[in-house]
Amino acid sequence: MVTGIEKTYTNTRPYWSLPVLIAVGLTMATSSVVFIEPAPYDLLVMALLGVLMLRGLRFPREMHLAAICIGTFALANLIAAAGSTDPTATFRFLFVRIYLLLTWLLFASVIAASPVQVMRVIWFGYSIAAVLAVVWGALEYFGFIKLAMWEGGLRAKGPFKDPNVFAPFLLPVALYGLKELYASGTLMWRAAHALLFMLIAFGTLISFSRGAWMAFILAFGLFSVFTLVSLGSFKGRLNLMLANMLLVFAAVGILSVAVVTTSVADRFFQRAVISQEYDLQEGGRFYTQQKAIQKIGTTPLGIGPGQSAAVLGIPPHNLYLHVFVESGWIGGLAFFIFLFFSFYRSLALFWWKSPLRGDFFVVFASLSGLLLQSFFIDSTHWRHFWLLLAMNWGLIVAYERFRTRTV
Fold first, then answer.
1. Stretch 298-324: mean pLDDT, rounded?
2. CA 317/CA 57 separation, integer angstroms
3. What is the pLDDT of residues 26-72, one digit of tens each?
4. Cα(200)–Cα(366) distance, integer angstroms
5. How many angstroms separate the CA atoms of 358 and 61, rounded?
6. pLDDT for res 270
7. Element housing 401 (H / E)
8. 155 three-state secondary structure
9. Which position among 93, 322, 384, 395 has the lowest Cβ density within 10 Å, counted as fewest Cβ atoms?
10. Three-state helix/strand/coil letters over 175-239
11. Nearest-CA neighbor of 151 among 161, 165, 140, 162?
12. CA-CA distance, 143 to 147, in Å (whole number)?
């Protein structure tokens, strides 16, 4: 049944149908299985994009300035690719980069067309993918999966290639679990989402990704503050603070039990430091970032997509340096303007009286956490990073359309 609020936001264009919602949900449910390329998610996204374009999918006019920034970023990458010394590798990375920009376009447009329905489907599918990833990662970590790629070890990565991508992928689902825990619903519904949050927190722990831990703490704090401020009653705020305290105590309990296991304890205390020796040594992360800054100053057109490792020795492990060094000054500036514009346009949604405001809090806090982590890792090609940006813009468009209809 479609409620009044859904009628307010839903676009009734002819391409919209139940099969599209099912396709979006299936795409999201497979989004954690990315150890192969192209991943099932990629194939489904391209099929969905092709079908919806044939059926009349339209790009929201409210996103034109953002699209100009993204288009400039893509053009700068094309120019940088022309000067690459390794055209084969550059073409592959260029293709991936442009594909991810198209995923942003696709999901932002689909969410804008029917935000309430699509956000529900996305969260449902995303939650399935995250639970699959955590269960897979736990089985791998404790040695129950002993295939060539997953033979157990020091860090869980689940169906991902890298623990540092596995853990950030989980973050939005953790916050979604909190959102549903705080929302009105049955006791069973809230308990299920409390368990979802704890499961995701455990998956993040056994990834032993320092950046993901920082992102998780920041996002959890921001989301809690946003939700606390948005509540209109003292009782609601008190209940939220009590729920948060219980979750923190439960998380500490799980951590305490986990570190009793020798392998987990040793790895935890090894990783729970700000920097490792390999970060500081010559040829390490911070050394390479210094080289990247120097390279940016001498190559205004960029070195080309995918050339960081070849030119610098290892990738710079910093999203902001990465886009500048590979895409050039124009590409890096366009990307920064896009990020700034994305956050600036979304500020009005903090005061939006809508059921979608909770979704926005999840997206905004998750993006903030990932962008903090991106100072220590390159997230340019993370599928869930561009999905969150698309969700952010889809909600911005929904707000703009709601505002113009109610003025």
1. 89
2. 36
3. 999 999 999 998 999 999 999 999 988 888 788 898 999 999 999 99
4. 14
5. 24
6. 60
7. helix 383-406
8. coil
9. 93
10. HHHHHHHHCCCCHHHHHHHHHHHHHHHHHHHHHCCHHHHHHHHHHHHHHHHHHHHHCCCHHHHHH
11. 140
12. 10
Instruction: Name the token pair of 29.
Output: 């449910």
Any idea which residue has 């209940």 for tokens?
239
Structure tokens at 190: 């809230």
Distance of CA 171 to CAs 166, 385, 386, Å? Answer: 10, 11, 14
Amino acid at 292: A
CA–chain centroid gap for 216, Å, is 12
Q: Token pair for residue 254?
A: 């799980």
Within 13 Å of residue 284, how many CA atoms lie on the same side as its CB? 10
For residues 337 and 345, give the distance between their C-alpha atoms in angstroms, rounded to a whole number: 12
**3-state DSSP call for residue 304?**
coil
Q: What residues does each domain of the chain span?
A: 4-406
Rounded CA-CA distance 80/84 in Å is 7
CA nearest 370: which of 237, 253, 209?
209
For range 275-303, the mean pLDDT: 74
Residue bearing tokens 């860090």:
155
User: Do residues 83 and 301 touch, judged by C-beta distance below 8 A?
Assistant: yes
How far apart are alpha carbons 334 and 267 in whole angstroms? 40
262-284: burial string, b at 16+ Cβ within 10 Å, e else: eebeebbeeeeeeeeeebeeeeb
Please report which residue ranges of 302-356 form alpha helices under DSSP H.
Answer: 308-312, 319-346
Give the predicted TM-score (pTM) of the model. 0.89
Kind and range of the H or E run holding 358? helix 357-373
Joined together, the tokens standing for residue 262 give 């020798």
- What secondary structure letter does DSSP report for 62? G
Tokens encoding 294: 């120097």
